[in-house]
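Structure ticket #2291
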Amino acid sequence: MPGENLSRDEARERAALLSVDGYEVFLDLRSAIGESGQEPRTFRSVTTIRFRSADPGATTFADLIAPSVTAVSLNGKDLDPSEVFDGARIALEDLAEENELVVDARCVYSRTGEGMHRFVDPEDGEVYLYTQYEPADARRVFANFEQPDLKATYRFQVQVPDGWTAWSNGVGELVDGVWRFAETKPISTYVTAVVAGPYHYVTDSYERVLADGTRLEIPLGAMCRKGLAPHFDPDDVFLVTKQGLDFFHDNFDYPYPFGKYDQAFVPEYNLGAMENPGMVTFREEYVFRGKVTQASYERRAGVILHEMAHMWFGDLVTMRWWDDLWLKESFADFMGCFALVEATRFTNGWITFANNRKAWAYRADQLPSTHPVTATIHDLEDAKLNFDGITYAKGASVLKQLVAYAGREAFLEGARRYFKRHAYGNTTLADLLAVLEETSGRDMTSWAGAWLQTAGVNSLTPQVILNAEGRITELSVLQEATESHPELRPHRVAVGLYRRTSAGDLERYARAEVDVDGPRTVVAELAGEEAPELVLVNDDDLTYCKIRFDENSLATLREHLGDLTDPLARALCWSALWSLTRDGLMPARDFIASVLRFAGQESDIGVLQMLHAWTNSALTHYAAPSWREEGARTLAEGALRELRIAAPGSQHQLTWARFFATVASSAADLQLLEGLLAGNAKIDGLDVDQELRWAFLAPLTANGVAGEDVLAAELARDDTASGKRHQVRCLAARPSAAVKAQAWAAVVESDALSNALVEATISGFAQSSQRELVAPYAARYFDAIERVWAERSIQIGMDVVRGLFPHLQGDEATLAAADEWLAGHEASAPALRRLVLEARDDLARSLRAQACDAAAAS
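Resolution: structure written out below.
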C-alpha cells in the first residue's frame, strides 16, 4: 500500500501544473468469463488523456495500478514501459504545452471491492462486474490523474461478453459489439463508473417543467443480479427517486445536470452506496430477501436521497482535496435527511438521525483520532479513514445547527449561489462561507472556526433553582468541554420542560430557544414556570452536543421514560442515557434495566433497533464480567417476553425475534430456536423466512448446537450469494479451537477470500461467549497487523485491523499489549496506527465502564 499513496503536496503540485481536457477509455472485459489460469484474471485497458501543461518541459506522473503495461506513448513518442512504469505511477518527462498520453495496460479484476470488482454468483454461475473508486481506485482500471481537482470529460467504450449489457455515467449504445457511452460533463476520476453483466434492469422516467418553461426528462433505471430479481421492488426505488428529484429541483434551482439516472444494487459492495453521476451504485443488501421493518425501507430511502444530493454537492461542485471531504459528505447526509422528511413517507427521519446517525458522530468525536469537520488530510490513506462519523454525521449535525443559526431560506439560497458560481469546479471552505455570509448576513468565519475547525463534543447540562412556591427562579444551561478539546461553542438550542399529565403521560408544557455561549447561559424565558419533572436541553435536536440531566430529570427518566409521548424527545433521552453509559457515568446494568422496562413501549422501530444494538454492546463490553451471565439471562428472558406479547405479524415482533436470537444462550432458548426452525414450535404471526432462519442459526452454531452438516443443509436450501455469506459467518462462529485457527488463517494468512467473505469470517470469528477460545489470538494479532497492512489492499487491511482487534478480552493485559505495540511501532503507517489507537481507546472505555458497573453492585 505505501507505494500506492499520494500526498496532498504532490497533488497540489500536479494541479498547479496540469489541466485535463478529456479522457477516452476503452475497456475489453470479455475476459471476465471463461477459463482462467493461476495468475490473476486481467482485462485490457487503453486510455488516451489530453491535457495541458503550464510549464512546457516539466515533469509529472500519471497514476495506474496494474500488473503490466503493454505500451505508453506521450505526444506520439513511444516510451519504454519498463523504464517509466513502477506499478503505481507512469513517469512523464518533457511535457509540451498540449499533450496526449496513450497507455495500453493489463489491469486486474478485483475481489476486494476496489477497482473493477468481479463477482461470480454461486446460484447460477453468472458473472457480474462493477467499479468502485473512492477515494483513488479508478487507477486500478485506467490510467489517469487520480485527484479530485483535475476534472475532465470522459468517453468510455466497453466491450463485454455476448449477451451482456454495460452501463456507465453517460447514455450508451451498442455499436459493432462495443458499448459506446456519451461524453460526460467535467467530473472527477473517483465518480466515473462502469457496470457490466447480465443484470436484471428496469426502466422508468422522470419529467418536470422547469421555472423557465423548459421540459426536463431524466431516463431512470434500476438493476440488480438476476438471482435477486424476485425480491426486487423497483417501484419503491423509483418513487423515492422521483420524490427526491422534485425536492432538489424545488430547493436548488439548478436542474439535474448529468442526463440519465441509473441505480445499480451490486454484490460484495464495501460501502452503503456511491454517487457516480448517472450511475449510482448501492450494496445489494438494500434489495430485501425477507420481511424487514419500515426502518429498513427508511434507511434505503435515506441512502438513495443522500447519493442524489451528491449530484450537486460533490459531483457538480467538488472539494479541491480531501481536506474538504465534508463539503460533499456532510451536505449529502444533511440534505438526504432533509429530503427524506419533507418529500417522502418517512416523516420521522430526524428521529432516526438524532438516535442513530449522531451516535456514530458522538463516538468518533471522542476517539483520540477525532478531527475537525474540515480535516487535515496528508495523503490518500488519511482520506480513506476520514470517511467517518465526523465527516458524515457530525458535519450534517453542524449543518442542521447552521440552518437554525442562519435560517432555512438563507441556507438554501447560499446553496443555489454556490452551485451556479462553481458548477463543474472545485471549492474549499472559503468558497462556501462566502455565499453563506452573503445570504445570511451572519459572520460565518467565527461560526466556522468554532464548529468546523475544532474537534470534540460539548456537554450541556441544565441547572434549575426553584423558589418556595415550586416555581423556577432561574434555569441555566452549563456547557463543558474536555481538557483535550476545550472549545466552548455557540449553540442554538431549545430547552423543553416536561411533566406528567393526569393520564400519566410525560409531556412538554414549556419551551424556549436560546443561544448558549460560554460556560453558563441563563434561559430567562423559563423563569416563573412550574417545577419540571424533566428538563431536556437540546429539545428538538437543534444542535450537536452531549445531553446531560440534572438529578431530578434523571430520576424521572428512570421511572417514566416510557411515558414520554414525543418520539423525538424519547429518542434524545435514550441517546443521552447511552452516552452516560459509554462514559462510565451510568452502570451498564442500569441502562439494560431501562431498556427491558421501557423498550417494549417504543413506537419508533428504528429507535427500538438501535436500543437493541446498544444493549448488546452494554452487555458485551460495559457490564462487569461477574454480572454478564446474569445480565445475559435477564436480557434473553425480557426479549422473549416482548416477542411473545408483540402484535402478531408486526414489525415489532420481527425486531424482538431478531434481538432474542442475538441474546439466546440457555438450553431452553436454543431449543425454542431449533423448534422455530423445524416448524414444531410456533409464535403466532412470526413468519420464519430465509433471512430469519439464518438469524436463528447464528446462536445455534455459536453455542455448539448446530454443526457443519446443519449449515450445509441450510446452504442447500439457500444456495445463493447471501446464503453463502451467512454460512461462512456461522462456520467461523462454531466453538472449536480448530475452527478458529482455520478462520484466522483464511483471513490473515491468505488472500483467497473475497471482501464479502472476509467480512463474514471476521464477523463469525469472535463471539462474546467464546472469550477464552479466541484469547490466544490477541498476541498473534499484534504480530500480524503490520504485515497485513503492507501486503493487502487498504480495504482488507482496515477490515482485518478493526475486526480482529481483541476487544473481547476486555482486560488490562490487552490494553498493555496495544500500548506496547503503539510504542514500538511509531514509524508504522499513520493510518494503521490510527486504527489501533482507536481500538485501544474503545477498550480503555470499556474497562472504565466495567468499573462503574462493578461499583454499582458493591
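Closing remark: The chain has 28 helices and 28 strands.
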